[in-house]
Amino acid sequence: MRGGSIAVVGGSIAGCAAALAASRGGAERITVLERADARLRDRGVGIALHSDRFDELRDGGYVTPEMPWAPLSRRVWSARDGDTEHGRVIGEQPFPFRAYSWGSLWSELRRRVPEDVFYRSGAVVTDVEPDADGVTVRLDGGEKERFDVVIGADGYRSVVREAMFPGAEATYAGYIGWRGTSPDAADLPSDGHEAHNIVFPGGHCMIYRIPDGAGGHLLNWVLYTTPPWAESLEAGLRTPTSLPPGRLDAELTAYLRGLVADNFPPYWAARVLRTPAATTFIQPIYDLEVPRYTQGRMVLVGDAASVARPHIGGGSVKALQDAHALEQAWAAGDDWEEVLGSYDAGRRAIGAAMVALARRMGAAQVENTPDWSAMGQPEFDEWWHDQNNGSDRRSGFGGHSVKAT
Ligand SMILES: Cc1cc2nc3c(=O)[nH]c(=O)nc-3n(C[C@H](O)[C@H](O)[C@H](O)COP(=O)(O)OP(=O)(O)OC[C@H]3O[C@@H](n4cnc5c(N)ncnc54)[C@H](O)[C@@H]3O)c2cc1C
Asked: Please, which pLDDT band fits residue 123 given cuts at 50, 70 and 90?
């Protein structure tokens, strides 16, 4: 299938990758419409990519070994044990991941978007209207343009998805992720080659090193827990949102800091509590599934299509794989029906499987946490095995292999 005019709504990880896919697939004219101004704010957060998934995406031409990264080989789960500095290890597991900062991953994808793609910053799409053989996209200034196909890469609050499946919204999982990055990344155990998961009743906190983009490292962490006063917070959190630095409710911050002080081993409590307030923020956690990845001439990729709770460590992988699969469907199909039908058939089930696995992990790691204090390695292994649906290999943790599509 060659030619055609394509709008990509959203120019983040999924959007840049989808523009690249459309270009390689043979689209004639591609416009990326990104709401954010000139440069997407460098979200200084960590993204961990499973090494095997990285290799597949490198072979597919979406990522490169040159992007700054920090290697991770093991994940150590620890619980507070009185005043013992590092707490007690309840379990360890292989963790073959590559740690990136969101900014370096995005910059590489943005660099790969070919020059003849029109990447429009500050372009807010307000409406998407399909017709029999195209889609009209409206911008907030009133401007409108018709395209042969629109790709929704506009994240969990997607306007493209709303046009495809009105009311199919991300639903609040009932808990939040409190995220932070701190310059305090020196002298970590095992030279920083381990990811650490600090567990406590009602949640856990994942901590690992990421590159700072200047040859050094930052400490990246995300703590998952159900906020107190759920009733009063929930009305706000049910509408997909995130609270950026500086807008964090003071009472909520005080609660989270207290939780860390009371429940973390002293070494990790100090590291988390020293994080500057300006680099912490809250992301409510959501689940999202759609009936299909395509509808008429509209297509979804990345978080616009499905959102799996982050315990699975595979959202960016899925976004890049969606684009890769779209490129392959494009190259193989003779008309739009074939291209879009084959893409949907390949990716819909993967998205649903990731959401399901992530729900199980969220239930086990946040909603119904076990008695961590009673766990040793054998109990930990059994607990982990259960979350992975009784399978330790190919459960989809870290993202499914592209060979699964
Ligand atoms: C706490 C947390 C931890 C995570 N950790 C990991 C991890 O370790 N590994 C991993 O692989 N994944 C992780 N993820 C998931 C990962 O961040 C996402 O799945 C991935 O970045 C895909 O993003 P996206 O490009 O689809 O959406 P987004 O990054 O949300 O991008 C959507 C883009 O669309 C734009 N946009 C939205 N609406 C409009 C509009 N109307 N008009 C124009 N533009 C619009 C936005 O400005 C934005 O740039 C994590 C997620 C969370 C919440």
From this structure: very high
Q: Is the CB of 125 under 6 A from ligand 1?
A: yes
Lowest mean pLDDT among 51-60, 75-84, 227-236: 227-236
Residue 284 has pLDDT above 90, yes or no: no
- The 3-state DSSP class for residue 131 equals strand
Query: What's the pLDDT at 227?
Result: 86
pLDDT digit string, tens, across residues 225-271:
998 866 555 556 655 455 544 445 677 888 999 999 999 999 999 99
Q: Check pocket membership of 195 for ligand 1, CB cut-off 6 A.
A: no
Query: CATH 3.50.50.60: which residues of the chain?
Result: 5-41+104-170+288-365+378-404
For the domain made up of 70-101+172-286, the CATH class stated in words is alpha beta
Give me the CATH topology for the region 5-41+104-170+288-365+378-404: FAD/NAD(P)-binding domain (3.50.50)
Kindly state if the Cβ of 222 falls inside 6 Å of ligand 1: yes
The best mutation among 47, 57, 72 to test binding of ligand 1, ranked by most ligand atoms within 8 Å of the C-beta, falls on 47
Of 16, 32, 33, 34, which is best to mutate to test ligand 1, by the most ligand atoms within 8 angstroms of its C-beta? 34
Banded model confidence at residue 285, pLDDT cuts 50, 70, 90: very high
Tokens of 35: 């709401």
Bridge-partner residues for 50, per DSSP? 97
pLDDT for 187 beyond 60: yes
CA distance 22 to 192: 38
Ligand 1: distance of its center to the CA of 180 in Å?
17
CA distances (Å), origin 20, targets 27, 110, 401: 10, 9, 20
Nearby residues of 202 by Cβ (< 8 Å), 6 or more positions away? 225, 226, 366, 369
290 ligand 1 Cβ < 6 A: no
